[in-house]
Amino acid sequence: MKAAPFEYTRVSTLAEACELLSEHGGDAKLIAGGQSLVPMMAMRLARPAWLVDINRLEELKHVELRGDALVVGAAVRQCVIERNADAVRSLPLMNRALKWVGHVQTRNRGTVGGSVVHADPSAEIPLVACVLDATLVLQDTSGRSEVAAREFFFAPMVTAIAPEQCLAEIRFPVWDAPRVGCSFEEVSIRHGDFALVSACAQVALDADGKCVRAALGIGGASPFPHALPEIGAMLEGKVLDDMLIEDAAVAVAGLIDPDGDLHATAEYRRFLARMLAMRVLKAAAEDAAGKGAK
Ligand SMILES: Cc1cc2nc3c(=O)[nH]c(=O)nc-3n(C[C@H](O)[C@H](O)[C@H](O)COP(=O)(O)OP(=O)(O)OC[C@H]3O[C@@H](n4cnc5c(N)ncnc54)[C@H](O)[C@@H]3O)c2cc1C
C-alpha cells in the first residue's frame, strides 16, 4: 500500500519543529530515521497529515559524557552510537543490544530517539534505557521537562510523550566501577526480527568478586520494556554463583505476566525469560570477573 497524502517540512531548528507540532497537534508527526514510521504509514496504520523532518537537526545529534551520564541526542543514528568510542567504553550494554536491532541497513538510518518513542515492547534500546534507569528529556514550545525511562512506557506504542513534544536527548547513567560486566541475549524467529523475548543484565563486582550492583530487564514479555529492580536487590552483596543465578532466574519468571500470541504462548515466553535471565546474568558476571580491579 501507499501512504495517505501528507504535507512535509524539513526543519532547521528544534524550536521550529516544536512550533509545528504545537500548531498541528496530533495531526503532525516527527520523522527521524523513518524505519518504523514509514512502514506504518505505508500500511495506513499511521496517517499523519504533516511530517516534520528532524534529520538535519545538529542539536539532536550529540553524544557526550556529562557528569555521570552518557548523553545521546535523540536523532543520533543507531550506527553512530554503535561505533562511538565514549559509548562503547561507558555504555557497553547499549553496544551489546544494538547488535540485535534490525540489520546494518536499518541501523544506518534508525535513530536512538525514534526507537524510544516508537516504543515497541520488544525493542532493545528502550529496554536498555529502562534497565539502566535513563532519563528522557522532552522539549516543547514552553521548554524542557524530564521523565524517567521507567515511567515513560505504558503499552505497545503508548508512552508519556504528548503530541506537541519532541524527545531531545536521553541521559544514560554510566556505572563508575572498575569491574562492570554486561550481556544482552534474545530469541527471535529469525535474526534481525523483533525478539519473542529478550533479556539484558549489567553487574558490578568488588575486588572479592561480590556483586555491588546489578540491573536486569526483560523485553517482549510485557506490554512495555520491563526493568526488574527486585532482581538487582536480590543479588547485591552476594557472590553470583550458579545457585543464586538460578534462583534469580526463577524469580524473574514469577515477576512477569506475558501474553501469548500467534508466535509464542505465554508459557513459552515465561520459559524464555527464565532461561535468558540465567544466561545474561552468568555472562555479565563472567564479563565483570574478567576485568581486573583498577
Ligand atoms: C526490517 C526492520 C527490522 C527492524 N528490527 C528491529 C529490531 O529488531 N529491534 C528494534 O528495536 N527495532 C527494529 N526495527 C525498527 C528500527 O529500530 C527503527 O529505527 C526504530 O524503531 C525507529 O527509529 P527511527 O529513527 O527510524 O524512527 P521513525 O520511524 O522516524 O519514527 C518512529 C516514531 O518515533 C517518533 N519520533 C522519532 N523521533 C522522535 C523524537 N526525537 N521525538 C519525538 N518523536 C519522535 C515518530 O514520530 C514516530 O512516531 C526494525 C525496522 C525494520 C525496517
What small molecules does the structure contain? flavin-adenine dinucleotide
Helix content: 25-40%
How does the helix and strand content classify structurally?
A: alpha+beta
Largest sheet: 5 strands, antiparallel
Q: Helix-strand pattern, N to C?
A: EHEHEEEHHHHHHEEEEEEEEEHHH
Radius of gyration (Å): 19 Å
Can you list the strand order of the major beta sheet? 4-5-10-6-7
As a percent range, the share of strand residues is: 25-35%
CATH arch. level architecture of the largest domain: 2-Layer Sandwich
CATH topology of the largest domain: Uridine Diphospho-n-acetylenolpyruvylglucosamine Reductase, domain 3
Low-confidence stretches: none
> Please, what is the average pLDDT?
96
CATH class of the largest domain: Alpha Beta
Describe, in plain words, how this protein is organized in 3D.
The chain has 294 residues and is α+β, with helices and mostly antiparallel strands. The chain folds into three domains: 7-53, 2-Layer Sandwich (Uridine Diphospho-n-acetylenolpyruvylglucosamine Reductase, domain 2); 58-173, Uridine Diphospho-n-acetylenolpyruvylglucosamine Reductase, domain 3 (2-Layer Sandwich), CATH 3.30.465; 180-288, CO dehydrogenase flavoprotein, C-terminal domain (Enolase-like, domain 1, 2-Layer Sandwich). It is built from eleven helices and 14 strands. It has helices at 14-24, 37-42, 78-83, 85-90, 92-98, 104-109, 112-118, 124-131, 229-235, 242-255, 266-289; strands at 7-10, 28-31, 50-53, 63-66, 69-73, 135-140, 143-148, 153-155, 158-159, 166-173, 180-187, 197-205, 211-219, 226-227. The chain is globular, with a radius of gyration of 19 Å. It binds flavin-adenine dinucleotide. Residues 29-37, 54, 74, 101-102, 106, 109-111, 113-115, 117-118, 120, 123-125, 161, 166-167, 192, 194 line the site of flavin-adenine dinucleotide (FAD).
